Amino acid sequence: MDVTLAQTFLAIVDCGNFRDAAKRLHVTQSTVSARIKSLEEQLGKPLFVRNKSGATMTVAGRNFRDCALSFVQLWDKARYKVASTRSYQDYFRIGVRPSLWHPLTMNWLQRVQRQFPAVAFHLHFGIASDLVRKMQEGVLDIAVLLTAPSLPGIEAEKLYREDFLLVSGCDDPVPSPERADEFAARYIDIEWGEEFRSNRDHYYPYLSVAGLTFSMGSYGLQYLLRNGGYGYFPRTMVQADLDRKALKVVNEAPVISQQIYLAHARNVDNVFLPDLLNHFRALAKEV
């Protein structure tokens, strides 16, 4: 399949109609229509229903969307990797949960950029399912995760353990059994992974269904800082806010220790990869 067809499909999904997609791609609307017709013929299914309000994906279109996005991203990776040879010897895409950016990944990036000036890096931040899918599809070379992916060709090793603390806004009262409903109503749930959820539910089974959930901890933390409430966050993520008294640790709340994993392709013959992984391992000992 021509990558241009997938790019055209995604432009229509994003714009909502063929006309605006054509403007974005700097081609005629008839060209966009011809590309989608070719794509539908190759797939054997219609991808859009066109009406006055625009273009709506069919079931086949919705099923194809993630595949099209991965295909375009993999093509971009290949294009950048090849193009980087003009200025760089190699190119790596690194996937990171935003909560694991500071200090581990940021320090890692600073160190490897100094040591390997001939290597280009692309940092991709996302939720667990997004990062794991991109690892499986070969879009990412290395990922720092809260859950070990079980995928063929992917090796996941234990990197270090992170302590998750129950924190609250400074004006929020200390939770107590008598105020469990109030605590649950103001609890901000973050998708830290199944291992964390299982441990958290052991201590707080009534939090298994939360009224407010964020897929990314950084946004949940911003919300808590502005509106108050309660939530579990990595110590490294909230330490600065604790130091400046913007948050407080909930006294006597259990600390949940969560394993952090380093994932990468297995048996890859690359001259830079072993050193890049070793820098992660060395820095993990300092966290």
UniProtKB/TrEMBL annotation:
Pfam families tied to this protein: HTH_1, LysR_substrate
CDD domains: PBP2_LTTR_substrate
Classification via Gene3D superfamilies: Periplasmic binding protein-like II, Winged helix-like DNA-binding domain superfamily/Winged helix DNA-binding domain
GO molecular-function term, one example from the UniProt record: DNA-binding transcription factor activity
InterPro entries the UniProt entry points to: LTTR, LysR_HTH_N, LysR_subst-bd, WH-like_DNA-bd_sf, WH_DNA-bd_sf
Occurrences of domain HTH lysR-type (ranges): 1-58
Keyword terms: DNA-binding, Transcription, Transcription regulation
Keyword Transcription applies: yes
Matching PROSITE patterns: HTH_LYSR
Coiled coil ranges: none
Signal peptide region: none
Family that this chain belongs to: Belongs to the LysR transcriptional regulatory family.
UniProt protein name: LysR family transcriptional regulator
